[in-house]
Amino acid sequence: MMNQSLSIREAIIQRRSIKLFNGQPVEQDVLMSILEDALWAPNHQLRQPWRFVVACGSELLDLYDVLKEFALPKWKELSEEDLEKQMKKYTLAGGYVFVIVPEDARQKERLEDYAAASMLVQNVQLLAWDRGIGSCWKTPGFLDNPKFREALGIKAGERIISMLQVGYFDEMPKPKPRKSIEEFVTVFEKHE
Ligand SMILES: Cc1cc2nc3c(=O)[nH]c(=O)nc-3n(C[C@H](O)[C@H](O)[C@H](O)COP(=O)(O)O)c2cc1C
User: Fold this and answer.
1) What's the pLDDT score for residue 3?
2) 105 belongs to a structural domain
3) CATH number of the domain that 90 lies in?
4) Residue 2 has what pLDDT?
5) What domain range includes position 71?
């Protein structure tokens, strides 16, 4: 059994979205092991409604080229220095997991599949956190761009729901406090 350094509660409460990584690559076997564990997310009818396009090794260089085109469409007008600076939010991540979900034509199934895949992403984020790896679920507009989809090999009837950046980091972001539970809870009373 693997050494679990954080309790579930600690992992949930201490996890932060990491937006500034330090450039250290995430090892492929570590990422695969995290993803494999994350597959235990609940999902209706065991549809396992997900697949992943992953980059964390030398393939990252090709991915940066693609990201550059879509994130900075006017990159050719930038100086090399500015381009490098603006690409840092992409190039400092140690790995990428694009989470791809089928778009079921039936609304109930489609919502269930998105919910299940979201639970899987949470699993990935918590499991990564437990290994000192930060992550951020990102949804840049270009995820739905047909040309970007093509560059990632996304098929008709599939959707990229998350560009999950993972990686090591030097600075722990401050917690973003949540409202207190009382603000969200209504004790049930029967409405006549
Ligand atoms: C569905 C979803 C989409 C998100 N998209 C983005 C995004 O596009 N860019 C970003 O910086 N963070 C994104 N986030 C991360 C949130 O900004 C982050 O979870 C929130 O600020 C709370 O911070 P915490 O996760 O550290 O508690 C997204 C999170 C979720 C769940």
Assistant:
1) 63
2) yes
3) 3.40.109.10
4) 55
5) 20-170
